Amino acid sequence: MRKFISAFGFSNTIGFIGLGNMGIGMAHNLAKTRVVYAYDASPAWQSKIESSNIKPVSQVADVAANADTIITMLPNDKIVKSVAQEIFKKQKKTLIDSSTISPYASYELAKMAQDTKNIYTDAPVSGGVGGAKLGTLTFMVGAEKELYEKVSPILKEMGKNIFHCGKIGGGQIAKMCNNMALAIQMISVAEALALGKNMGMDPAMLSSIMSVSSSRCWSVDTYNPAPGVMPNVPSSKDYDGGFMVELMLKDLGIAIEASKKSGTDTQLGQHAQQIYNKLNEHFGKKDFAIVYKELIKNK
């Protein structure tokens, strides 16, 4: 089993906290070369374990007791901070946070780590559930160069593209901007496909055209929102098992907050936030591409 040179020594074990739709795929890719001590607040994830190298534990403290390097993949700032506080009760731990949280929260976490003689880096991801499963995620890393070089070998076990985004918080800034663009993009693609369908055009045909034309984008050729166009994406599975509306809304909230603090005009981002806020009233647990279904329904 390959070993990773951490900031404090050698280890062929790693910790993973947050085994949701994304985390479970990431953990399985790590388990190809490592023993993974894993924890999630909901025990339901354990039914998805497909590797004997994944070792479920009953609490965050057990992860910290068994691994010096720990990855978190959690829903929001508050939960990440709470988990980090538990991890940082020990010293000489390296926390790689792949959650999508506010850059400002990353600054706080870095200070917590420094104060407790630990190490923190933000390393959010893009690529969806499929990318997590296939090990083709994009990682956006906020860290000093030396730390970035030390954590990169681990990230390459889960991802295809690893970007150094500068100092702490840089990864979250990149992810925040990416997800705001994605939210806007998905709405625009859904609107175009709905318009075509309502005028008699097959969404699959229109998608084929758009995928080789100037509107080509991830929401068209990789994560199409129209059911039946692509067999293995959430839109063809009743919008289950993907990136939930409530999480997209959370990410948009991060972007809008940052835009206000930085004095940036984000009118389309704010409009997207309003649309997903409405969807969240009834479809919070569904994939964010469900915006297409609502556009069709509202014809």
Helix/strand layout:
Elements: E1 4-5, E2 10-11, E3 13-17, H1 23-30, E4 35-39, E5 54-56, H2 60-66, E6 69-72, H3 77-87, E7 94-97, H4 103-115, E8 119-122, E9 125-126, H5 128-134, E10 137-141, H6 145-155, E11 159-164, H7 170-198, H8 203-210, H9 218-221, H10 245-262, H11 267-283, H12 291-297
Parallel strand pairs: 3-4, 3-6, 4-5, 6-7, 7-8, 10-11
Antiparallel strand pairs: 1-2, 9-10
Catalytic activity: 3-hydroxy-2-methylpropanoate + NAD(+) = 2-methyl-3-oxopropanoate + NADH + H(+)
Domain 6-phosphogluconate dehydrogenase NADP-binding: 13-166
Domain 3-hydroxyisobutyrate dehydrogenase-like NAD-binding: 169-293
Please tell me about this protein's structure.
With 299 residues, this protein is α/β, with parallel strands linked by helices. It has 2 domains: 4-166, NAD(P)-binding Rossmann-like Domain (Rossmann fold); 173-297, N-(1-d-carboxylethyl)-l-norvaline Dehydrogenase, domain 2, CATH 1.10.1040.10. It has 12 helices and 11 strands. The strands form 3 sheets. Strands 5-4-3-6-7-8 form a 6-stranded parallel beta sheet, sandwiched between helices. Helix 7 (170-198) runs parallel beside helix 12 and helix 10 runs antiparallel to helix 11 (267-283). The longest helix is centred in the middle third of the chain and has 29 residues, at 170-198. It is globular and about 60 Å long. It starts with a strand and ends with a helix. Mean pLDDT is 94; it is low at 1-10.
Q: What's the quick description here?
A:
With 299 residues, the chain is of the alpha/beta class. The chain folds into 2 domains: 4-166, 3-Layer(aba) Sandwich (Rossmann fold), CATH 3.40.50.720; 173-297, N-(1-d-carboxylethyl)-l-norvaline Dehydrogenase, domain 2 (Orthogonal Bundle).
